[in-house]
């Protein structure tokens, strides 16, 4: 077949295929045009999942009569005029492709009127054909009706799903658009059914109410509001608590300069921020807003504008990752309850920096570790009547994890506070304490002790090879090692925390866990994974009997340790039951 110029009708349909994937794509383009036009209220009506009808009505500035015909021509736009404009786009639309693409695959009717015009004007399109401009009746603003979507593209029509599925896609899209602009009212109807009605919020504090309406009050009750800024870049919003993680990524919202995006770089930065506190296979919930100089982000990376490209992607990635990790670091006893959502000022004003770890002056961070590793098995007689511990509770009322009373099933510590009882998973809590201590000392080298005689560890050859490849990580963690043969490892120095422990067994377990690690996505992944594994293998395990002073020491350490509400694998380390909940179980007070 010889090379030829394609007819305009076919060119339009090919271009439409890049922008209009399904009915939700039409809604997105039309609503974004309404937002760019300064609308304060946008009404969307759909029928048959958007295939039968999509009507978007707004109260924006409208279009002048001589601009209406141009609006249906390809690459005609009022939003950019030069390369300089393209490099700092501040509008949602700018490519000049949406309206002609929609018109080429539907029966379209556009009515619009400006405030200074005596009457509205109307134009219609039926696939490739266009009507002449004629006067019409319409209030100030614009209405676009799209009927019989894909009527002339049967191949595309076959890929459209059921009415309910397509309506669901549209509803989720409008929810994202409503979250991006809480100052604007949105209403979505499918036939006679109202799917979303979000009035414009209070200009002084609209975002909290909009998040509550769209994402739900349960999200805000289990989320941490935060914000962080560095130069011209600001990030803020709500981070769902690790304990409120979900089985699917269905509550993850990102907005960049007011634009809803699904950008892999941003999503990966959040994933890394949660990596130390989220259980595997679970997904965090969040609503996050990023604002920066438009010149620092390229929104022209994809026809649908759902992905963006940053001028310095690594700096943006690390800025977000570290801001989220710092915010989540305060998920520890005493800081577990989210602040009121209204306390978050989503402005670029004063920034609240996270407070540093509250370690007690003069405390040896390794003291608890040494005691728990070397302590003999105790058989304490515990006062279950609570008489012996009552004075301690009064003296330590401000301690979130309270006063320990007993060890249950060799696994849990039962503690009492003024508000109720607390159950602590001693292994999970100790694991987090060790992990955070290892991380804090890793940069300068973990304290270690030399051995009079080297310990010999038998390892499979492939595990030994993998271990030696990460020799620097082991050395910074307090080990001095050398290969004594193809399957024999010699240890000449070990971390101080392993004093008296089964060192060879721990080294075997750590080497086994670290063999064939998953690909690292960040420079700190490998070392953090090593330290987390080491902490897991060296922390106290089930059936290790602890004395009451040892339990109390562990609880106090947890209260001072970042991220202590979760272990290194994301499991919760403690739960609380209030006296009211206990009374309700026993029908007291009825």
Q: What would you note in describing this structure?
A:
Helices cover 33% and strands 22% of the residues. With 590 residues, it is an alpha+beta fold. It folds into three domains: 8-198, 2-Layer Sandwich (Heat Shock Protein 90), CATH 3.30.565.10; 206-343, Ribosomal Protein S5, domain 2; 356-590, 2-Layer Sandwich (formyl-coa transferase, domain 3). The strands form five sheets. Strands 1, 2, 3, 4, 5, 6, 7, 8 and 9 form a nine-stranded mixed beta sheet that branches. It has a five-stranded mixed beta sheet with strand order 10-11-14-12-13. α2 (23-36) packs parallel to α7 (163-180), α10 (264-273) packs parallel to α11 and α14 (426-442) packs across α18. The longest helix has 18 residues, at 163-180. It is elongated. It starts with 7 loop residues before the first helix and ends in a 5-residue tail after the last helix. Mean pLDDT is 79; it is low at 79-83, 338-397 and 518-524.
Overall strand count: 23
Q: What would the CATH topology of the largest domain be?
A: formyl-coa transferase, domain 3
Major sheet: 9 strands, mixed
CATH architecture title of the largest domain: 2-Layer Sandwich
Fraction of residues in helix: 25-40%
Can you tell me the CATH class of the largest domain?
A: Alpha Beta
The structural class is alpha+beta
Shape: elongated
> Unreliable stretches, pLDDT < 50, 5 or more residues?
79-83, 338-397, 518-524
The portion of residues forming beta strands comes to 15-25%
Average predicted local confidence, pLDDT: 79
Radius of gyration: 31 Å
Annotated CATH homologous superfamily of the largest domain? MutL, C-terminal domain, dimerisation subdomain
Q: How far is the N terminus from the C terminus?
A: 87 Å
Number of domains: 3
Counting DSSP H or I runs of 4 or more residues, the number of helices is 20
């Amino acid at each position: 077949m010889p090379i030829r110029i394609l007819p305009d009708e076919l060119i339009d349909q090919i271009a439409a295929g890049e922008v209009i994937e399904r009915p939700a794509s039409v809604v997105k383009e039309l609503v974004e045009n309404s937002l760019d036009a300064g609308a304060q209220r946008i009404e969307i009506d759909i029928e048959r999942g958007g295939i039968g009808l999509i009507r978007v009505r707004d109260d924006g500035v409208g279009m002048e009569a001589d601009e209406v015909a141009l609006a249906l021509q390809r690459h005609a736009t009022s939003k950019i005029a030069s390369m300089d404009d393209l490099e700092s786009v501040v509008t949602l639309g700018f490519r000049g492709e949406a309206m002609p693409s929609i018109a080429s695959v539907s029966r379209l009717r556009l009515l619009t009127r400006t405030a200074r015009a005596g009457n509205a004007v109307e134009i219609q399109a039926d696939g490739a054909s266009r009507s002449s401009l004629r006067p019409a009746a319409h209030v100030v603003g614009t209405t676009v009706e799209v009927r019989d979507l894909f009527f002339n593209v049967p191949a595309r029509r076959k890929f459209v799903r059921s009415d309910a599925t397509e309506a669901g896609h549209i509803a989720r899209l409008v929810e994202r658009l409503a979250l991006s602009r809480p100052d604007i009212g949105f209403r979505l109807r499918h036939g006679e059914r109202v799917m979303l009605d979000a009035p414009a919020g209070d200009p002084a504090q609209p975002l909290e109410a909009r998040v509550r309406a769209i994402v739900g009050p349960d999200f805000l009750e289990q989320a941490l509001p935060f914000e962080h800024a560095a130069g011209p870049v600001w990030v803020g919003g709500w981070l769902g608590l690790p304990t409120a993680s979900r089985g699917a990524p269905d509550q993850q919202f990102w907005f960049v300069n007011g634009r809803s995006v699904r950008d892999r770089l941003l999503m990966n930065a959040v994933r890394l921020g949660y990596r130390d506190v989220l259980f595997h296979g679970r997904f965090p919930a969040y609503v996050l807003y990023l604002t920066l100089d438009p010149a620092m982000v390229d929104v022209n990376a994809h026809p649908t504008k759902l992905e963006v490209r940053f001028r310095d992607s690594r700096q943006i990635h690390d800025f977000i990752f570290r801001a989220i990790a710092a915010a989540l670091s305060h998920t520890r006893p005493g800081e577990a309850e989210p602040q009121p959502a209204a306390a978050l000022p989503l402005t670029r004003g004063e920034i609240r920096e996270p407070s540093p770890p509250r370690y007690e002056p003069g405390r040896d961070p390794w003291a608890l570790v040494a005691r728990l590793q070397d302590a003999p098995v105790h058989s304490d007689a515990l006062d279950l009547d609570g008489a012996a511990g009552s004075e301690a509770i009064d003296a330590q009322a401000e301690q979130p994890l309270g006063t320990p009373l007993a060890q249950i099933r060799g696994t849990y510590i039962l503690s009492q506070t003024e508000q109720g009882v607390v159950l602590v998973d001693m292994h999970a809590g100790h694991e987090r304490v060790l992990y955070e201590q290892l991380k804090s000392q890793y940069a300068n080298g973990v304290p270690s002790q030399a051995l009079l005689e080297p310990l010999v560890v038998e390892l499979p050859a492939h595990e030994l090879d993998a271990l030696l490849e990460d020799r620097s990580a082991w050395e910074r963690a307090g080990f001095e090692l050398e290969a004594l043969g193809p399957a024999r490892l010699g240890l000449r120095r070990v971390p101080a925390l392993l004093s008296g422990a089964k060192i060879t067994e721990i080294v075997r377990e750590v080497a086994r866990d670290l063999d064939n690690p998953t690909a690292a996505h960040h420079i700190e992944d490998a070392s953090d994974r090593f330290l987390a594994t080491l902490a897991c293998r060296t922390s106290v395990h089930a059936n290790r009997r602890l004395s009451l002073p040892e339990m109390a020491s562990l609880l106090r350490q947890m209260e001072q340790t970042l991220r202590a509400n979760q272990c290194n694998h994301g499991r919760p380390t403690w739960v609380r039951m209030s006296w009211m909940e206990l009374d309700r179980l026993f029908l007291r007070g009825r």
